[in-house]
Amino acid sequence: MNAALQRLRAEIRFDRAAFEARLSELQAIKLDAATDAAHCAQAAVALHHAYSAIESIMQRTARAIDGDLPSGAEWHQSLLHAMGLDIEGIRPAVLSRESVAALRELLAFRHFFRHAYAVEFDPERLASLRGGLLDAAPRLAHELTALDTFLGEVAAAPIGDRE
After folding, report:
1. What is the pTM of this model?
2. Which residue, 24, 49, 75, 140, is most buried by CB atoms nearer than 10 A?
């Protein structure tokens, strides 16, 4: 179990680094009413990948700690909701209500992104999404650090104390 938890921590750190790289990319993109299609597309891809990195952390956590992933047509929403729950005896909430709300907007955008083959991106909407994500980023960083701390404590606990 210790090796599995340490691997989980390493995988989450990898996903977190990918998320932080997308944040840096988003900070560097100028978004206003005059932003061209190429820069809008770059921002859209970065927003998509930023959410995907966070969702990967949620999936890994759900599989390893919660025991499985939600299923059904709305599993992405269910997963996000589950990460906001404190599951007594299993794990604390991974995300705050504020983070869940901010990520819910990005999840909706990601769904739009994946199905918007013939749509031009609105630079003002992208700027709003980016702003919401950048505002949420410090809180998300704190919550992901708390998750890593929790996993480290569980991994270090004597085997009889883990259940």
Report:
1. 0.92
2. 140
